[in-house]
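Query structure, 377 tokens:
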């Protein structure tokens, strides 16, 4: 929900709609929550979730490290005060010249998931440390991240052995159990796969030291989610189960769980209409849609809480859509969204839980609409 600081900012500043407002106090609380939940794991904030300089600077000052998907994100983390040793180039799909640039900036930890990527890093960043991403099924996640990234564990063994032969430091294994993962047990199978890779490589004389357990930690939307402490307990039990007393160094990469509930989008109703006299559902068009920052409503995967000043009035189902001249710019139609019957043109709405993956997903100028403006307080 919107914090009092956000409510006060919107009422006092009256910024133009649509806009995102992020409360840094919530980000700080979330970081400390992760640190308490997994005190022995290094926190590498997933910069792609929200790269606002104020957020990166706060996290750098708190001692966070950073998971970066591009050279631009690496430069942002460095500018925010992080040292190169606190940065991971976590994208498995990198241009060779970008690998060289990152290595030149001092970054020495790179993600891979195939021998071809290993060979690029061996050429462009000799002696670097690499970890191999393994596939997971993503079951239980509202935004699965399987298929495109990672390889099966047996291939990861060959990838890391190949890295070792080429003079790289085969450091460990990574995985991602899927974004907005609501099953606290989801990490167990992936940790079993990681332990298997560790064991097989040890048999070949290669000692791995790192398990990057990725992100997946959720934020609250319309449903309650487990606490960071619940995830921490489950993950630590999994580590002990599969690694025994020889616990590896571990990394977590929270993104959505770090900033999602810190942000609220203020939007405006542009139009309320029906398609026929017998249409059961109203169409409510907002001044923000998929192309303005709400891309995660694709397939209605993420259902954001929407708050209006008329919420005490009777509600009925609505199809919710954005303002652009594109038929794909519909947010909720398969499962219509209940909104007040009295909602009308010009009303303001607050879309909560929007601190992550909104400004970074917003188009530059589709249909001439400007990118989503953001304020960090």
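Result returned for the query:
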């Amino acid at each position: 929900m919107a914090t009092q600081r956000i409510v006060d900012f919107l009422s006092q500043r009256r910024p133009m709609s649509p806009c995102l407002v992020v409360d840094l106090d919530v980000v700080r609380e979330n970081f400390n929550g992760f640190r308490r939940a997994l005190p022995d794991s290094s926190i590498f904030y997933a910069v792609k979730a929200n790269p606002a300089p104020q957020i990166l600077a706060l996290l750098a000052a708190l001692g966070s490290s950073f998971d970066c998907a591009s050279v631009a994100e690496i430069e942002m983390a460095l500018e925010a005060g992080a040292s190169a040793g606190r940065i991971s180039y976590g994208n498995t799909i990198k241009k060779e010249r970008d690998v060289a640039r990152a290595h030149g900036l001092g970054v020495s930890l790179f993600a891979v998931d195939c021998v071809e990527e290993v060979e690029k890093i061996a050429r462009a960043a000799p002696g670097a440390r690499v970890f191999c991403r393994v596939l997971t099924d993503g079951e239980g996640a509202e935004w699965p991240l399987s298929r495109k990234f990672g390889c099966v564990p047996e291939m990861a063994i060959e990838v890391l052995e190949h890295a070792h032969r080429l003079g790289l430091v085969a450091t460990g294994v990574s995985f991602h159990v899927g974004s907005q993962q609501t099953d606290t047990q989801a990490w167990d199978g992936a940790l079993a796969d990681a332990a298997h890779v560790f064991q097989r490589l040890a048999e070949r004389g290669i000692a791995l030291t790192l398990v990057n357990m990725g992100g997946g930690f959720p934020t609250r939307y319309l449903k309650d989610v487990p606490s960071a402490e619940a995830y921490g307990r489950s993950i630590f039990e999994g580590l002990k189960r599969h690694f025994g007393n020889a616990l590896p160094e571990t990394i977590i990469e929270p993104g959505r769980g770090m900033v999602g509930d810190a942000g609220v989008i203020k939007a405006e109703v542009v139009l309320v209409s029906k398609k026929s006299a017998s249409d059961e559902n109203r169409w409510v068009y907002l001044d923000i849609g998929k192309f303005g920052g709400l891309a995660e409503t694709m397939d209605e995967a993420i259902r954001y809480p929407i708050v209006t000043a008329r919420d005490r009035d009777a509600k009925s189902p609505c199809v919710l859509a954005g303002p652009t001249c594109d038929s794909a710019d519909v947010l909720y139609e398969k499962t219509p969204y209940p909104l007040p019957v009295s909602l009308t043109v010009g009303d303001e709405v607050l879309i909560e839980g929007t601190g992550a993956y909104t400004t970074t997903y917003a188009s530059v100028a589709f249909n001439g609409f400007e990118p989503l403006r953001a304020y960090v307080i």
